[in-house]
């Protein structure tokens, strides 16, 4: 069963094209990452999925329900943790969660509300007013609020932005458990390490367009092999090795270079060539390629 079907979605804010024809199919049970720099259109896409804003063209369905034509049915299948913290400050945590349950037509939902609060370490704040909570605690309530109706599809928009390490761990444990139990999870984050650890498949957005879509493993394989990071004490990288440089922006006053290699056997000839040219090595490191490398390449060049 398809959890979220996004077909040719376009959205414009006056002259700015925020989404330029996005199509994505996310299957039930996936842990999917939606990545991209600030302004790429992630929040706009999530707002359209949540039925909060209308696309200019295209359509989105959640478990087959159109988010504009069949809003109530689609909304029941979906829990969204928005990027912005917005609350009624006069309610307590428990009241906030009960209200949200009522909105979904679930008046006797306290057992699940208690379980969600427990899993997000919110139990001892149950009777605290929202306005008295720290930013991190508010973020927890926002997550709890998205989960009150046990939605099969959970979408989180930068849930760990500006959040302490402890909450990140609590949150990921809970979300991982929900995903194991069959919930579909879609996550946007700019912590790429987090995405790499959590997401099985990712789409990268750039200026409102999908520029990469693949399994995490395949994306990481695509930027073949490893990086050889060289720090030179003297001399510089010989011209015939410059085509191997992968991140020119990391070159530190012409002393530090990151070279792309496919095989460890390439290391020896590179070192020999350096010696020959009179360059002196200060430090050398071999690094496995990670999502950050791929992200930089895609955002620089538009492809890998
Ligand atoms: N309500 C709005 N009015 C005008 N422009 C907007 C509005 N919301 C977002 N944008 C613009 O649309 C683009 C995409 O924004 P957004 O979806 O928030 O990106 P992301 O979440 O990836 O950072 C940005 O250039 C942003 O400035
Ligand atoms: Mg955003």
Automatic annotation (TrEMBL):
<feature type="domain" description="ABC transporter">
    <location>
        <begin position="4"/>
        <end position="232"/>
    </location>
</feature>
<dbReference type="GO" id="GO:0005524">
    <property type="term" value="F:ATP binding"/>
</dbReference>
<dbReference type="InterPro" id="IPR050763">
    <property type="entry name" value="ABC_transporter_ATP-binding"/>
</dbReference>
<keyword id="KW-0813">Transport</keyword>
<keyword id="KW-1003">Cell membrane</keyword>
<comment type="similarity">
    <text>Belongs to the ABC transporter superfamily.</text>
</comment>
<keyword id="KW-0067">ATP-binding</keyword>
<dbReference type="InterPro" id="IPR003593">
    <property type="entry name" value="AAA+_ATPase"/>
</dbReference>
<dbReference type="InterPro" id="IPR027417">
    <property type="entry name" value="P-loop_NTPase"/>
</dbReference>
<keyword id="KW-0472">Membrane</keyword>
<keyword id="KW-0536">Nodulation</keyword>
<dbReference type="InterPro" id="IPR003439">
    <property type="entry name" value="ABC_transporter-like_ATP-bd"/>
</dbReference>
<protein>
    <submittedName>
        <fullName>ATP-binding cassette domain-containing protein</fullName>
    </submittedName>
</protein>
<keyword id="KW-0547">Nucleotide-binding</keyword>
<dbReference type="Pfam" id="PF00005">
    <property type="entry name" value="ABC_tran"/>
</dbReference>
<dbReference type="InterPro" id="IPR017871">
    <property type="entry name" value="ABC_transporter-like_CS"/>
</dbReference>
